[in-house]
Amino acid sequence: MYYVKPFDPWKSKLCTCPPKFSFNPYTGCYHNCIYCYSTYIPRFHELRLKKDLFRKLVKDLEKIPKNSLISMSNSSDPYPPIERELKITRKCLEIMSDFDIKLLIVTKSDIVARDLDVFPKKSAVGITITSLKTAKVIEPNAPDPEKRIEALKIIKECGVPVILRLDPIIPFLTEDEAMKVLEKCDFVDHVVTSTLKLRKDILARFSKVLPDLAEVYKRIYTERVGSYMYLPKDFRIRLLKAIEEKCNELGVSCAFCREGILFKAKSCDGSHLIPS
Question: Which residues does the UniProt record annotate as the domain Elp3/MiaA/NifB-like radical SAM core (predicted)?
Answer without folding.
Answer: 19-223
